[in-house]
Write a structure and sequence with these properties.
The chain is an alpha/beta fold. The chain contains six helices and seven strands. The longest helix has 19 residues, at 42-60.
C-alpha cells in the first residue's frame, strides 16, 4: 500500500488537497535552494523546483507517492519572488499594479519508477493600485511567504480585475490537474460520508 507524502508544508496546498478529497499521510517540506538559474524562464523554474522537491522526498520515502509543487509569479520573463520584508513587498506590488502577470505552478508526482510533471499557468491582472491599497496589502501581512507578495484568497482578491485560468493554481496547487494525475495513478480520494 502506497503512502501519500506531500513535499511541502504550505497550509494552502494542504487545504487545496483536502478540498478535492486527498489527505497526505505525511507532510515533509523539501527545503531546497529555490534560487533561479541564470536566464531560467519562470515556467521552467516552477517545473524544476517541483521536480527537485519531489525527488528529494522520494529518496527518503521510495515506496510512497510523492507530490512536489512550486508556484512562481512572473511579469513577462521577470520572476517576482517571495518578499523578504515590507520594502520588497511594496516594490513587488508596484511592479504588478495595473498590469497582467502570470502564475505558474509546477507539480511533480512520483510513484515508483513513474515521474509525472506538469506546469499550469493562470493569467491575472491587478487594478491600478493606489498607495493606500498597497499599504493595506502590506499591513495585512499576507505578503509573507507568498510569491509575488500577495495572496489571491486574501485581501488581494479584491484588487484582481481579470483572471484567466483556475484560481487554485494561483493559491498554490492546480486542483484539476493534480486530481487527474493522482486518480490516474490509482490514488483514491478519501471521502468520509456521514
Amino acid at each position: 500500500m502506497y503512502k501519500f507524502v506531500l513535499a511541502s508544508s504550505s497550509p494552502r496546498r494542504i487545504d487545496l488537497l483536502k478540498s478535492i478529497g486527498y489527505e497526505p499521510d505525511q507532510i515533509v517540506p523539501a527545503n531546497i535552494d529555490e534560487t533561479p538559474k541564470t536566464r531560467e524562464l519562470p515556467a521552467k523554474l516552477a517545473e524544476r523546483l517541483a521536480l527537485e522537491k519531489a525527488v528529494k522526498i522520494h529518496e527518503q520515502f521510495p515506496d510512497s507517492i510523492i507530490l512536489g509543487a512550486d508556484t512562481i509569479v512572473a511579469r513577462g520573463r521577470l520572476i517576482i519572488p517571495k518578499p523578504k520584508d515590507e520594502i520588497e513587498a511594496i516594490k513587488y506590488l508596484k511592479l504588478l499594479s495595473g498590469r497582467r502577470h502570470v502564475v505558474y505552478t509546477g507539480i511533480c508526482i512520483i510513484k515508483g519508477e513513474k515521474c509525472i510533471k506538469k506546469v499550469v499557468q493562470t493569467k491575472l491582472k491587478f487594478k491600478l493600485l493606489t498607495n493606500q491599497e498597497i499599504d493595506n496589502l502590506v499591513k495585512s501581512n499576507e505578503w509573507k511567504d507568498k510569491s509575488g507578495g500577495y495572496a489571491l484568497q486574501g485581501m488581494a482578491g479584491a484588487y484582481i480585475s481579470w483572471i484567466s485560468g483556475h484560481p487554485s493554481n494561483v493559491i498554490g496547487l492546480p486542483v484539476h490537474e493534480t486530481y487527474k494525475i493522482l486518480s490516474g495513478i490509482g490514488l483514491k480520494q478519501n471521502i468520509d460520508i456521514n
